[in-house]
Amino acid sequence: VSTQSTEQTRNQPTMLSLLYLTLLLCSFAYAYIPGVAPVEFEDGDEVELKVNKLTSVHTQLPYKYYDKLPFCAPSVILDKAENLGELLMGDRIENSNYEIIAGQGYKCHVLCKTDVLTAEQLTDLSQLVQEEYRASWILDNLPAAMPKILQNVNGETTTLYETGFPVGFVGDPQENPGSQDGFNYLNNHINIKVLYHTNPDQYDGRRIVGFEVEPESITHTLDFNADDSKAYPGTCLKRDTGPQILDPRSTDTQLVFTYAVQWEYSETPWSNRWDQYLINTDAQIHWFSIINSVMIVLFLTGMVAMILMRTLNADFRRYNQLEPNEEAEETGWKLVHGDVFRPPRFPMALSVLVGSGVQMVMMSLLLLVFAVLGFLSPSNRGGLLTALVVLFVAMGVFAGYFSTRLYKLFRGAYWKKNTIMTALALPGSVFGIFFVINLFIWGEKSSGAVPFLTLLAVVALWFGISVPLVFVGSYFAFKKPVDEMPVGVNQIPRQIPDQVWYLSPLFSVLMGGVLPFGAVFIELFFILTAVWGHQFYYIFTFLFIVFFILIVTSSLITIVLVYFSLCNENHHWQWRAFLTSGSSALYLAVYAVFYFFTKLSISSAVGALMYFAYTGIFVLIFFCLTGAVGFLAALSFVKLLYSSIKVE
User: Fold this and answer.
1) Nearest to 60, CA basis, from 592, 613, 606
2) Which residue, among 264, 196, 201, 212, has the nearest Cα to 38 in the 3D structure?
């Protein structure tokens, strides 16, 4: 006993040390965040305007800016991508020929004049307009945005930023005077407004705090000297020729791209420059979501408290106050004490799923902590996805540890095979789905296709870091002795009596997933809207609270249903515990299908395939996460339950 106690004491800090090491590695990874340090521009300094991908909510296929708009491209195109997350998101940030000089405005500046466009080029541009593609620009790490005025029921107005701007528009005489119904028009003139802030007492120069754009369509005349950098067409100021039509039947269409620049002082300090992009107009809905979830938690907590404080206490008193020579009349859950810790069917599969679920819990928890602390703000482009990949890899140590501990508890003999399955099953499934959908995106020549070298880098992270960490966690778990169970296991399994219909495995499992899903579905709507609507999701404090509520709800509903199952003498609780809370992923999948057909307007087959493939990955991760939480909560409850009775 003394030796075992010493060994347990020696192994107690193991997982804590691994967690500290993981946090240290992650802190080094995010020690430098591009875009968070202010830059001062003196008058006359050049401010680089970068172009990013073209996106559409109808196709969900992003394209490189110059692949679809090859006009006015620099002689040498430089890739400005900074991290793994940007590449995985399809961002392809490149330089441009736009000249932005600090403190200098232009009424009109010619970017370029094209040659006569072919019918194919005009058709391609028309298709971009019809599919409502939007262009993305970046200036001093701020995305270009179109200001929109919203008015509430009280008459109060709020200015919101809508990132990007449309490549063109379909003619509508009422909305766009001078246009014709059914024809496509190109936005070939951009009014740029750069908002800046100065504070001579603290710094010199200007700090950019806003980047607004207003696109226009102008049929420019060609009677100007294109070789003169200061010359521009008179239509740039008069605007008396109507919008620039895109007619593939035309044989003499030449395009002139122009822009105007205006510098305007703003009272907004640099530290608050992202506020306009991140104004929350749905705060009441988020609070309603949290209150709804809290009510569910209170309901479940009350049920568990009732079980523990009334039913169990009464059972314990009656069971433990018997005289030594009296024989207890066992009923309900006490009858199955000799079978409750019997290993389940397919113990390795359950161990792998629980280990992978713990990995997802730790990844999600740390990701939300970093996000709440501000490390993953929108100013750090691609930071959220980069952090997700890094944490997914680093948390493999917890997957290996918990999977092996559980497999030993189930008396499994092939712990090495269990470790390999833990290292490969969930990551392999995610990577396999991602790789297949990436092939389809490659076929569309979209910038959303992850480059081959980036895929190799992801595979290197998987096999070079994640797999070894899984084995490290498994090694420490293997060295640790198996936990003693409060009661033994009979040699002959007890026969399970017929169950009432509402405690049948299928019905109880399906009902168990309703409440965890109900706690998160409102926030899920905002997440799906942000992801597939190409918007910023930034309300991580709400999400952190909802995640905590999800953990509590999954634990409580599983405990309640497992207890009811044991009371009906059904000792096959392990898989039921995992599937009870894990079944919330089924409702998530159903809701995702509903959202696709009612809220989205994806017209591309590959875009739809992308949606369901990525949703499938999310559902799989959610299944493992909630299932692991429910199982571990039920395991702790069952151990506590049977440790409180005296069994000969």
Assistant:
1) 606
2) 196
Q: What is the C-alpha to C-alpha distance for residues 63 and 52, in angstroms, rounded to an integer?
A: 9
Helix (H) or strand (E) holding 510: helix 505-512
Strand partners, 211: 194
Instruction: Quote the tokens at residue 633.
Output: 């909560």
Q: Give me the DSSP letters along 357-388.
A: HHHHHHHHHHHHHHHHTTTT-TTSTTHHHHHH
Q: What is the DSSP pairing of strand 244-246 with strand 184-186?
A: antiparallel
- CA–CA separation, 301 vs 313, rounded Å? 17
Q: CA-CA distance, 245 to 104, in Å (whole number)?
A: 31
The strand order across the sheet containing 244-246 reads 168-170, 184-186, 244-246
Distance between CA 553 and CA 302 in Å, rounded?
12
Q: In sequence order, what are the residues at sequence separation of 6 or more whose Cβ sits closer than 8 angstroms to the Cβ of residue 223?
A: 233, 234
Mean pLDDT by 10 residues, the chain (648 residues): 39 49 45 62 93 93 91 88 80 91 91 90 93 94 89 74 92 83 92 94 92 93 82 86 89 91 93 83 67 75 70 62 52 74 90 96 94 82 88 94 92 88 94 95 91 91 94 90 77 75 82 86 86 83 88 90 85 90 94 94 92 95 96 91 69
Q: Which two tokens stand for residue 441?
A: 């995106």
Give the chain's count of helices (H) and strands (E).
20, 15
Nearest CA among 576, 567, 556, 586 for reference residue 509:
576
Spatial distance between the Cα atoms of 370 and 29, rounded to a whole number of angstroms: 12
What DSSP assignment string belongs to 106-164? EEEEEEEE--PPPHHHHHHHHHHHHTT-EEEEEETTEEPEEEEEEE-TTS-EEEEEEES
Q: What is the rounded distance in angstroms from the CA atom of residue 197 to the CA atom of residue 211?
A: 12
Assess contact for 609 and 440: CB atoms under 8 A: yes
For residues 507 and 103, what is the distance between their CA atoms, to the nearest angstrom?
Answer: 69
Question: Strand 189-197 and strand 256-265: pairing?
Answer: parallel
Tracing tokens 């107009």 back to the chain, one arrives at: 281
